[in-house]
């Protein structure tokens, strides 16, 4: 058993109550009909919007199809009934665990189950949210499924597989031991047992070296932080699959990051004051929309006068931006704006990672990746929502330095479920326009036939197959002997037709079952 197998085995033992609940959910009545309901509806949506079969879709079409299928299936009545059955099974598993171990689980808060190829989250505490809003709090496996559909780039996979055999991809740095220790420390802090997985540590190091060569740049700190949500999402992967695919996910991830961060950096960075004012004004706009009281407190803190602004400003900017930028600075900017501007700038460049915990970062990236139109607004909205969670602490601040300290101390402790609820509360009444292309929800839902219809068709198909099989067996029993195999036949015809007789051509005969199957697939 290799290291990863040992780790997986340990995790399974630790979470055996989760495994038990999943096994119980496999016994839900009519589960195969629910699965078939989804697959048939997904094929219909594919034909309706793209006039293709799923395997014929290109990368962009596949992304859109994936989101349409998942989001629509989550809003039909039978899905709600299924969730109720899942919750019953899960509660039984929790009660069994409590009875035999004496350990109290926090109800369903830490129970992320997966069935129907992990399309449906099993947290009963957010079922009402599901029924109201299609942006769901994703279970790890559901997140993995969707992220694969959005980030997987087969061309990058092939390029990586080609170059991975070249020695330059694994050039040993003189600082290799230091790099490995840093990576191990990060993995221990954020992923606990992962810090002891030496194969994973080497994989992360190899990915960093390859990414630097691929991007033709020195990696900044955000390049390392951006790995965390990916490792969290795909942490169940075996070493080989990680090495083969994670590089593709990582580079695709960075492309999305550049898309939204570059939109924020629309001001000339050399004009430092203009840039800081630009990002603060954007934040204030969304903060006013989310919580006017919070925005008033934030605006008041920014407007506080302070003595010796220039001296403080000079010292701070030399340490943060470098002496070369000082010639372009307007030293009239307040101390408060400089401090908060650097905090917000770091959040934007890292796209939250490192400012909050990894699970909250994953929720933020769910919010960004699931939207077809990704924009800078998402970064400011998520920052404002974090401030709302720690609102009381923000209202107690006397200056921006207090606010920065509160943010760094409290944001990392935020619960991912609480953060998701904030996203839901903000988004449920918004006009999302074409963010998910679900304005035609009724039309999409029509592609998923009722579960009763699926069951009836399934049973009818079984009956047809049975009757056809019996008819075939009966026909075989009454067949005359084939003259081609007559031992008394002359040599010229033994095993075949006479040379003078042309070979007949046959058209394939489709059985009724096969014909119906073609209609269903088409």
From TrEMBL:
It comes from the Eukaryota. Residues 486-522 are annotated as: Disordered. Residues 486-495, 510-522 have a biased composition (Polar residues). This is Uncharacterized protein. It comes from Euplotes crassus.
